[in-house]
Amino acid sequence: MKRESEVLILGAGASGLMAASILKKNYILIDHNSSVGAKISISGGGRCNVTNRYVGIDNYVPRDEKIRKVFDRFDNKKLLKWLRSKGMALKLEKEGRYFCADGAKELVKTFRKCVNPSSLVLNCEIHSLRKRNDLFVMESSKGKFSARYVLVATGGLSYKKIGASSIGFDIARKFGHTVITPKPALVGFTVQKPQFWFKDLSGISIDVEIKVGEKRIDGNMLFTHRGVSGPAILNASLYWNGGYVEADFLKGKSAVSFLKNPKRAISTQLPLPKRFVKAFLDHLNIDDIAVGRLKKSEIEALRAFNGYRFAPAGTFGFERAEVTKGGVDLGELDENMMSLAVNGLYFAGEVLNVAGELGGYNFQWAFSSAYVAAESINGSS
Ligand SMILES: Cc1cc2nc3c(=O)[nH]c(=O)nc-3n(C[C@H](O)[C@H](O)[C@H](O)COP(=O)(O)OP(=O)(O)OC[C@H]3O[C@@H](n4cnc5c(N)ncnc54)[C@H](O)[C@@H]3O)c2cc1C
User: Fold this and answer.
1) 256 alpha carbon to ligand 1 midpoint, in Å?
2) What integer pLDDT is reported at residue 39 of this predicted model?
3) Ligand 1 atom with least separation from CA of 164
4) Do domains 2-184+323-379 and 189-315 have the same CATH topology?
5) 18 CA: nearest ligand 1 atom
6) Which of 14, 60, 78, 247 is most deeply packed, by most CB within 10 A?
7) Could you tell me how far CA 374 lies from the centroid of its own chain?
8) Beta bridge partners of 132
9) What fold does the segment set 2-184+323-379 form as a domain?
10) How far is CA 101 from the centre of its chain?
């Protein structure tokens, strides 16, 4: 089988579906899954956090001006307006997060209505892409497809079990693009031996402030049998490139300021789970005794509650990561997400070297980058 179209969209995930909904040229949308939008369906605990009330380049790694330029053309407000125009009900929740009021599957259904059924090719493994004269030729498990424009929307490496593959990065490299080493992000940390005491605290969560490099992150940290997780840690993983992470378990308030009663033990006075305090004191070699009996050096050592440094061993890996950081270098694309080296070759979504924090930022990026790419293709002759 050989099929021709003006545009080939590789990947029917968030960005591929948005591009297909915007394109006015004739296109073919390809995915190896048996249905579209697999990640959308499971996202946000099945409710899909589509975007956030506040979106800016500070929510992304790297903090690249090109991201701002994309949002200048299709930002959160335009996305919300577009989704509502398609009949989607959205719900604003805490921390400015917008969710699909009727669940993530509703968004997939909405996109399905926007996609021309005869343009959709499912159960089709993309193998490679080449360009001959002005035409791209894509080899796949369902034969050859050719087009003048290609949008690579094949996502990152996380969640292989629902379709992730390295094909987008392979294609980018084949065409001479730089791919910043893909790494798991929005993922938990495994710990080294000095922090094995964390493992006994599995299930406990604490509201903390995490410092990683120059970045400070407020949120919940969850102890697990493998290490640490929870929103603060997931966001920290976005900024972590090896080295130390620092946790302030009392968010700026000194431990001593809570220890008002000299007759009572430390663990009964700190506003933290008792089991955690006992384990931490044990780790610090301090007995959980009446505060009045503590030595001066022990009181000083309690400062560790405000700055406990540890070097994660690594992360829980791509299988548990919500996104991939790294990817195709934005510096080698124009503002329409088209390759500066290969005319007609576009990229959108997670395949690019853009990863956002928790809170709807990754879908916003997928939809915005796909929108500008599709608009640019619409305007090309
Ligand atoms: C569990 C989970 C929850 C998440 N929740 C949220 C959330 O609530 N809010 C948010 O903003 N972000 C969330 N994300 C991140 C978000 O899902 C992604 O950033 C977004 O889907 C990226 O869109 P994309 O189009 O670039 O890639 P994807 O949506 O991953 O789409 C890529 C498509 O390409 C296809 N593909 C890949 N390789 C091939 C191949 N060789 N041949 C054919 N097809 C191929 C895949 O099957 C897939 O359909 C979540 C991620 C996960 C894993």
Assistant:
1) 47
2) 97
3) 37
4) no
5) 25
6) 14
7) 22
8) 135
9) FAD/NAD(P)-binding domain (3.50.50)
10) 21
Residue bearing tokens 């050989």: 2
**338, 346 Cβ separation under 8 angstroms:** yes
CA-proximal residue: ligand 1, atom 12 (nearest): 362
pLDDT digits (tens, 9 = 90+) for 26-66: 999 999 999 999 999 999 999 999 999 999 999 999 999 99
Q: Could you tell me which residues come within 8 angstroms of residue 68 by beta carbon, excluding any fewer than 6 positions away?
A: 56, 57
Cα 368 from Cα 360, distance rounded (Å)? 12
Question: Which ligand 1 atom sits nearest the alpha carbon of residue 16?
Answer: 25
Please state the pTM of the whole predicted model: 0.97
CA–centroid distance, 25 to ligand 1, in Å, is: 24
Residue 149 DSSP label? E
Query: What is the C-alpha separation between 347 and 363, in angstroms, rounded?
Result: 15
Q: Which atom of ligand 1 is nearest to the CA of 40?
A: 17
Look up tokens 């509201």; give the residue. Answer: 207
Q: What is the torsion angle, in degrees rounded to the nearest 10, for the CA atoms of residue 285, residue 288, residue 291 and residue 293?
A: -70
Secondary structure class of 352 (helix, strand, coil) = strand
Distance 13 CA to ligand 1 centre (A): 6
Tokens 């499912």 correspond to what residue? Answer: 122
Lookup: tokens for 149: 């424009």
* Ligand 1 binding site (Cβ under 6 Å of any ligand atom): 11-16, 30-33, 38-39, 42-44, 48-49, 125-126, 153-155, 158-159, 163, 165, 167, 322-323, 349-351, 360-363, 366
Structure tokens at 147: 């087009």
What is the CATH code of the structural domain delimited by 189-315?
Answer: 2.40.30.10
Kindly list the domain boundaries of the chain, sorted by start residue: 2-184+323-379, 189-315
Alpha carbon distance 158, 56 (integer Å): 24
Our mutation pick for probing the ligand 1 site, out of 154, 319, 328, 352, counting the most ligand atoms within 8 A of Cβ, is: 154
208-235 residue pLDDT tens: 999 999 999 999 999 999 999 999 999 9
How many C-beta neighbours within 10 Å does residue 1 have? 8
Tracing tokens 């209505």 back to the chain, one arrives at: 113
Question: 143-154 pLDDT, tens per residue?
Answer: 999 999 999 999
**pLDDT recorded at residue 1:** 55
In angstroms, the first-to-last Cα distance of the chain is 27
Q: Copy the structure tokens of residue 210.
A: 């995490």
Residues β-bridged to residue 327: 180
